Amino acid sequence: MSKHDEATLPLPWPPVIAEARSPFTAVRVVALMLARKRGLRERLADIADALNAAHLDWLFERRVVIDELLQLQANWFSDFRTTTGFIVEDSDQGPVVTLEDSSRMSGWLERQVVKATEECKRELAAFAKSDRAAGDR
After folding, report:
1. Alpha-carbon distance 24 to 10, whole Å?
2. What is d(CA 105, CA 16) in angstroms, rounded to the nearest whole number?
3. What is the model's pTM?
4. SS3 label, residue 70
5. What is the CATH number of domain 15-129?
6. Tens of pLDDT along 75-130?
């Protein structure tokens, strides 16, 4: 392999451990939920497994996924004044999530993805402006 070939290879990315309340985590969780079936109870463990399978360079711990889902449920309640469309509850199989089977759910989740994406862009812009060594902006 020549030096030129080495220079064009993509740089390796470090693995990322998903953090609660991070827009980078939120955008991935919401995008996955947008693609999930509606009207069915789904175990948190299955959602976390699907996230880990979809993002091989990330680690989504169940505690982080449930935190993001509870935030989404709070957002739903704030927007619609009801929790019946976005249900997170305990069951004998652990936490389960049920999403309302309606067009408003899809549109709402799409808006949540856009909001999280915009927040990611803001964080990246702030990082780009900061003095990374000192953490100053």
Report:
1. 21
2. 29
3. 0.85
4. helix
5. 1.10.10
6. 999 999 988 999 999 999 999 999 999 999 999 999 999 999 999 999 999 888 88
